[in-house]
From TrEMBL:
Residues 68-80 have a biased composition (Polar residues). It comes from Alkalihalobacterium chitinilyticum. This is YwdI family protein. InterPro entries: DUF5327. It comes from the Bacteria.
Amino acid sequence: MNIPVQNIIAKVEQQLNEMKSEAAEGNERGVQEAAKLIKAYCELVLDKESTATKKTTVSEQPRILPSANVTTPSTSSLNSNKDEGSLLDF
């Protein structure tokens, strides 16, 4: 999610004004709800900054791709397992 910081700041200011009016009315629940929203907006900005830092750190590191050695069992080993029986055979 790429939200401009200016939009988040505008939302924080809006919630701060809402919190002030709720506090003036003595509505504690409204104050708490506005505070939770402000906290969420702040965390959004902080997460955005930490994600940007992680992306630059990851892009600076060389990429090492693991080699895939896939072996398939031969048909002779599959047939020999049939002769041995299974724990589920009754």
